TrEMBL record:
Keyword hit for Membrane: yes
Name of this protein: Uncharacterized protein
Keywords: Membrane, Transmembrane, Transmembrane helix
Organism of derivation: Streptomyces peucetius
Membrane spanning residue stretches: 30-56, 63-82, 102-122
């Protein structure tokens, strides 16, 4: 099964490569891929490592890392639309206000993370109060 799936994958990649070369876009795609590697190695990876080091000092690092990964994925998905020059000639191509919606998505991630942090803090506070005997005792 693995060999059959691997052969199908190689065949599909070969078809894609042939279409890429035949379409005359090979240089553009190669330039874009090289730019992506450079951008990742010089900007994205150092930022992720620095954020990881800073978050390692915090008690709620798991929630914060999850929020940063989610925000990063949303940004990576929205980046082509955010960097698109001007408005398209056909208004039905990008009919929504994508930068605004991207910011709303990031705000939602921040709000959910804040709520989860508040919930964790309140739950910990309640647990500390009951352990120390400061909680409400029945009659």
């Amino acid at each position: 099964m693995r060999i059959a799936l691997g052969a199908a994958g190689v065949a599909l990649m070969s078809i894609g490569l042939a279409l890429l070369v035949a379409g005359g876009q090979f240089k553009d795609v190669a330039l874009w891929l090289a730019g992506a590697v450079v951008l990742h190695d010089l900007l994205v990876a150092p930022l992720v490592l620095a954020a990881g080091l800073l978050l390692a000092l915090l008690p709620a690092r798991g929630l914060l890392r999850g929020a940063l990964v989610t925000a990063g994925c949303l940004t990576a998905i929205a980046l082509p639309v955010l960097l698109a020059p001007g408005t398209p000639g056909n208004p039905s191509v990008l009919p929504l206000d994508y930068p605004h919606n991207w910011l709303l998505s990031l705000a939602a991630v921040a709000a959910v993370t804040g709520a989860a942090l508040a919930w964790r803090w309140l739950r910990g506070r309640r647990a500390r109060r009951t352990r120390t005997g400061g909680g409400h005792q029945g009659l």
